[in-house]
Every structure is written in C-alpha cells, then in structure tokens.
Amino acid sequence: MINLLTPLKTAKFWTELLTMTLGMAVGAAAVYYFLIPSKLIIGSISGLSIVLAELCAKWGIAIRVSVIIVAINAILLVLAWLLIGAEFGLKTVYTALILGPLVDFWDMVLPASRLIGDGGSVMNDPWLDLICFVLMLSISQAILFRINASTGGLDILAKIVNKYLHLDIGTSVTIAGALICCSAFAINPFRMVVIGLIGTWINGIAVDYFTDTLNKRKRVCIISEEHQRLRNYITTQLERGCSLYRVTGGYSGQDKVEVVTLLSQGEYASLLNYLKENEIDAFVTAGNVSEIYGTWNKKDRKRLTL
Taking the model in full, what pTM does it have? Predict the structure, then answer.
C-alpha cells in the first residue's frame, strides 16, 4: 500500500494531474462548442462509432453509439497498456473518464445554446467550426502528448504508430484519422467525408506545430577562451549538462574548445545575459531542437551527457 501511495506525495504527480485536467478541459470545450453543434465527423473514434452504428442499423442490429465508443476505447486502452506502457495507459484511462464530466461542466458554465446562431452552430459556418475545433483539440493533444498521456481513442492509435513506425506524432494522427475518415464513405456524402479528411490533415499539422513549440529547446554552441568559466556557469547556475570539444579554427588554425549544451528558452536568455554582463568574448551559435531522447528534466538534468 505504501508503494501505491508514494506517487501521491510527489509534486510531479500533482503537476501532471493538473496538466491532464486542463488539457482535457480544452479538448472537451472543442467537442462541446464546435463538434457537437456542427455535427462534423472528423477522423476519430467517435466518428468511427457513428459509422459502425449506422451500418449495424442497416443490418437490423440496434447498437447505441455510446456502447461502441466504450467498447473501442476499452480495446485501445488495453493496447495502450501492452504496447506503449503502464504509465501511458493509466493516464489515458484518467483522461478518458473525465471527458464526459468536463463536457457537462462547460454546459453548466456556458451553455452552447447561448452561442449558437442562425446557422445552427457557434460559428455559423462548417469550415470555421472545423478550424476552431481542430486548433483547440490540437492544443489539448500536444499538452497531453508532452507528459506521455493522450485524450484517448484516436490518440492511442497515433501513439502506437509514432512509437513503432517512428513517424512524427502529427503524421501519426493524420494517418490514423484518415483511415477512420474513409470509413464514413459508407454513410456520408462525398462532401462531408472530404471535410473530415481536411480537418484530420489540419489536425496533424497543428499537433506537430504545438508539440514542437512546447518541446522546443536550444542547442547552443559556444567557442571562447573562457570555456571553463562558461562550463561552471552552465553546470552550477543553470544546472544543465554540457560537452566540450576540441576544434581547430579554419581561418586562424588555432586550437580552441567548443562548449555544447541544450537549454530552455529562458536558460538561453540567461546565458546571453551572463556573457554580456561579464563581457566574455565568445562566438555563439544556437538552433532549435524539438525532440530530445534520454535524460533531460529538472530532477536528473545534472547527469545529462551529450
């Protein structure tokens, strides 16, 4: 019992719990205010469930959409646990459970009926509803993917594709969603299917953009005579790891030392201020890095090696 309660005492647990709740609140708002009123079918588990329910009705089998959603999500949660990991599976169970209550929460706070116009939706235009829904959902997905969680459903398929085929998470979302969208040909007119496919494609692009923005780090390369001083500042003040390389100047032919480190945006700004305030002569180059594999967090960052 002690082992089970230990995570509850950590700041990481409560931070991630709050992050998941806020991320799902954004996703629930997207569903409640833009998807449901406009009746759009995007490449999602909900869309697939609608298709399956309609097909079953044609075959004389009456199955509610909600039942199919629960069944598909249950299968996907098992796959998430087995193929991705227990942490991802547990977090996705939590996010899947709070989606419904959060939709009801937005209904109590600000009913969609107050915002719906003559066009039958919040934006009174299916394309604007689509864009608003996709942007909000993409932000929600990016926030959750960053802490190894998801909104459930389609995101689980995307995460599996991302892990085993090593594709960008946005591309994975697009592939999984497009396959589901194509199933809508069985019940929907061509125009509605095309709108769903375009929405899925935009969703993939937006997820990649927001994921890269949230994960963006600076790979900083510094050549200076005071490399030991810079090394001490990076490891002790910024508490980041760094690597030192022997380099030879192509113009001067002199041997120098290059310091390479990975920093957050704020830490990079602090480093530049340190160079300026201490009048350290240095040649600095920096580039954006959107993916880092290995140890790079506040608890273990002193052990980072490049």
Answer: 0.63
